[in-house]
Amino acid sequence: MKIALLSRNRNLFSTNRLYNASTKRGHSVDIIDYVRCYINIGENQTSIYYNGQKLSTYDAVIPRIGASQTSYGTAIVRQFEMLGNYCVNKSDAIIASRDKLRSFQILAKYGIDMPITGYASHTMDIHDVIEKVGRTPLIMKLLQGTQGNGMVLAETMKAAESVMNAFKQVDADILVQEFIKESSGVDIRVIVVGNRVVSAMQRVAPEGEFRSNVHRGAATKHIDLTLEEEAIAIKSTKLLGLSIAGVDMMRSKRGPLVLEVNSSPGLQGIELLTGADVAGEIINFIEKDCNR
Ligand SMILES: Nc1ncnc2c1ncn2[C@@H]1O[C@H](COP(=O)(O)OP(=O)(O)O)[C@@H](O)[C@H]1O
Ligand SMILES: [Mg+2]
After folding, report:
1. In sequence order, what are the beta bridge partners of 244?
2. ω into residue 265 within 30 of 0, thus cis?
3. Phi and psi angles of residue 45, each rounded to the nearest 5 degrees, phi first
4. Architecture of the 97-113+182-289 domain
5. Measuring CA to CA, how many Å separate 248 from each of 42, 129, 138, 201, 278?
6. Does residue 57 carry a pLDDT above 90?
7. What is the rounded distance in angstroms from the CA atom of residue 171 to the CA atom of residue 179?
8. Was domain 2-89 assigned CATH 3.40.50.20?
9. Which of 23, 45, 136, 207 is packed most tightly, with the most Cβ within 10 A?
């Protein structure tokens, strides 16, 4: 196969692993910095250029779109789709999963449980939307946040209200969420490829930190998922229209809760911990799926 790996940096662990897993299987791979792609749109002239050259078609495109480049990156992925290239994660699915609110709406509609979440636009409704979510502490997070950025833990209703108001002042889109106390600082990352869970880990935040992102220094630990957790991760991935995902979940008193679904999950933490060949699983899946 001829594969396009859309990534900003060929030295990233995940990019490297996907590159090596592909070439090991005899595929040729172009690593393409999608931010440096430019496009033409028009009848009979839809095209993608890179380094001054018009790109030909690929058998498979693997998008690894960074959170800060969602808009431009997904426009490029959509252009690949328009030209008939198979993209393992589709542009619309990447967009839906990047927006925490939109994801929750899709997931809740089909019976996936999550921390109770509120969202309001007008400052006059902030007090009420916070009360509806319920007791403190409460978490406020940006709709498009990643790696634990743009998150605040508010201990009191008053604090929650001030934080929401402050974010509104700078036009930031923020949601308010029930804090899952019983699992504070601990979450589960599940890697789904196609219809299968290929690996999972638990992440434990350092002392005094409630965010268990690896980028915030969380320790990674082995975990055995329950069948229910596996099913929820697979269903969430499918509902958002993704083929490859890293599903973040928390174990709560009322069962597993989904926090978010990541369309470009990092491979470093999970592969180094479990020894799983996640990159290889992804390429194996693409080999089968791109011909369907
Ligand atoms: N409602 C919550 N209750 C308790 N902890 C949470 C909650 N939401 C997020 N966290 C913690 O913060 C981390 C980051 O949250 P997440 O929603 O996954 O956003 P990000 O996109 O920044 O990773 C989670 O991994 C978890 O440890
Ligand atoms: Mg997360």
Report:
1. 193
2. no
3. -135, 20
4. 2-Layer Sandwich (3.30)
5. 40, 25, 19, 10, 17
6. yes
7. 24
8. yes
9. 136
CATH superfamily of 117-179: ATP-grasp fold, A domain (3.30.1490.20)
What percentage of the chain exceeds 90 in pLDDT?
A: 85
State whether the beta carbon of 145 lies less than 6 angstroms from ligand 1.
Answer: yes
pTM score, whole prediction: 0.95
Which is higher by pLDDT, 83 or 46?
A: 83
Which residue from 152, 153, 187 has its CB within 8 A of the most atoms of ligand 1, so it is best to mutate?
A: 187
Give me the long-range contacts of 203-206 (CB less than 8 A, separation at least 24). 203/269
Tally the C-alpha atoms within 13 A of residue 137's C-alpha that lie toward its C-beta: 13
Closest by alpha carbon to 64, among 132, 110, 11?
11
Band of pLDDT at residue 63, cut at 50, 70 and 90: very high
Token pair listed for 8: 């900003």
Domain segments of the chain: what residues?
2-89, 97-113+182-289, 117-179
Asked if residue 210 has its Cβ within 6 Å of ligand 1, the reply is yes
For residue 262 and ligand 1, the question of a CB distance below 6 A is answered with no
**Residue 245 phi, psi (nearest 5):** -155, 155
Atom of ligand 1 at shortest distance to CA of 177? 1
CA distance 20 to 194: 20
For the segment 192-218, the average pLDDT, to the nearest whole number, is 95
